[in-house]
């Protein structure tokens, strides 16, 4: 069975990497998949304020990427992008329903290996049901969106 992880807030503020059973841990290889950007919001969908196109977030944490992405705004909560990177398939969305309502809050479900969005969602619901219960209580549905060519 593939390993399933959650990155985000667990009914409190602060983004962390979690294993099933509320086990918090740190693994830089997972938190920075492929050696690039940190999971914290880098893979959630953003919309270009000038063109309206949806794009993935930054690919690294360097200053040039920050300036390149400053004209982008978060897509609505629940809209997610799927990525396969660093040995995991992940989905990430903006999410203020997991214990922290501030801006830039996001959630990520990671499933080891290559999988469909449906498989990642099913594994997430099985291993981290509280995440989906919190979304349901807030009336937020997870919907896949796709980046658009510039």
Outline of this structure?
With 150 residues, the chain is of the alpha+beta class.
Secondary structure: elements and pairs:
Elements: E1 4-8, E2 16-19, E3 23-25, H1 28-31, H2 39-42, E4 46-48, E5 54-55, H3 63-69, E6 72-74, E7 79-85, E8 88-94, E9 106-112, H4 117-127, H5 129-138, E10 143-144
Parallel strand pairs: 7-10
Antiparallel strand pairs: 1-2, 1-9, 2-3, 4-5, 4-6, 7-8, 8-9
Helix pairs in contact: 4-5
Describe this structure in words.
The protein has 150 residues and is an alpha+beta fold. The protein has one domain (4-144). Helix content is 24%, strand content 29%. It has 5 helices and 10 strands, in the order βββααββαββββααβ. It has helices spanning 28-31, 39-42, 63-69, 117-127, 129-138; strands at 4-8, 16-19, 23-25, 46-48, 54-55, 72-74, 79-85, 88-94, 106-112, 143-144. The strands form 2 sheets. The chain has a 7-stranded mixed sheet with strand order 3-2-1-9-8-7-10. A 3-stranded antiparallel sheet has the order 5-4-6, with no helix packed on it. A hairpin with a 7-residue loop joins β1 and β2 (16-19). α4 (117-127) crosses α5. The longest helix has 11 residues, at 117-127. It is globular, with a radius of gyration of 14 Å. The N and C termini lie far apart (38 Å). The relative contact order is 0.22. The model has no long low-confidence stretch (mean pLDDT 87).
